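Hi everyone, sorry if this is the wrong subforum. Our group has a chain we'd like a structural model of before ordering constructs, and none of us has done structure prediction before. Sequence below.
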Amino acid sequence: MDTLAIVILNYNGQPFLAKFLPAVLANADGHPVYVADSASVDSSVSFLRATFPTVRIIELPRNEGYAGGYNLALEHIRTHYGGARYYVLPNSDIAVTPGWLSPVLAMMETNPKIAACQPKIRSYDQPALFEHAGAAGGFVDWLGYVFCRGRVFATFEEDRGQYDDNRQVFWATGACLFMRAEVFHETGGFDGSFFAHMEEIDWCWRIQRLGYEVWACGQSTVYHVGGGTLHKSNPHKTYLNYRNSLFMLYKNWPADFWLWPKIMFRLILDGLSAILFLKVGQWRDVWAIIRAHFAFYGRLPQLHRERKRLKAQQTTEVPLYPDSIVWKYFAEGKKTFGEIM
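Answer:
Right subforum, don't worry. Here is the predicted structure as tokens:
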């Protein structure tokens, strides 16, 4: 069994592989590098075979998004390659840096309760700034809205060393997610119904309910292009984020009594955000939010069964940020993590 498997999920991302995979290989510290290809229709697989013969290629039968794709790929590594103690899942548009692996692995080796961890994520295009997807570790407020150290909504902080500490957080980003393999498989991996976006936050919430911890490592830094497969302006991304946020909240919110009042309040806030999209003429995003709500209603029976199963297994209460990040940011004008916390 390997100590660590570096696993990159790819879908029609041959240009990103050409640009960023050499640095991954150069800084792999002897650990195997896998590329799991989600039935790409570009030249990704032939390019990998011709250019990077040391990379272990996993050809998946279809594109099942981040969640389903990694579930298939990591199970394949466990059954066909003997598995690994840890996985790290860098996006194909992540630029790694020398020494990015060892600080995170040292943390996880020292504390067996850490089941998920992330490095600092900075912007590839604006290297001094934290990047949207995860920044320096994430949190969830009482309505299920997510925010990060270093990035709150559209405010991106400059990295001045203010988050160089190692600390426990609520969620670690899927852009470069380190995981304890045993915990990933024991918990059934990601929820495949999410397809993409927020599945890692859902998983981090679930593992904390079982007593595990999620951390951010300030001694490791990578750079993220972002939107390599699905750009942030794409209405389908809007649909997935709004839908999956509701999925996650319904499954994991602990108190039954406050669940539906909280869901209804959240639906109202989603409606207000749709009005903001409408004001700037983004009709497709408005329709994406409407579709997301109906997809949530349609999946309620399955979500309810999953909620009951998770409650029966839960051993630990998981505290959320007790206030509204929406109110803090838009009403009180608190734009950074330090101001909010």
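For your construct planning: The chain has two domains: 2-224, 235-340. The first strand starts at residue 2 and ends at 10.
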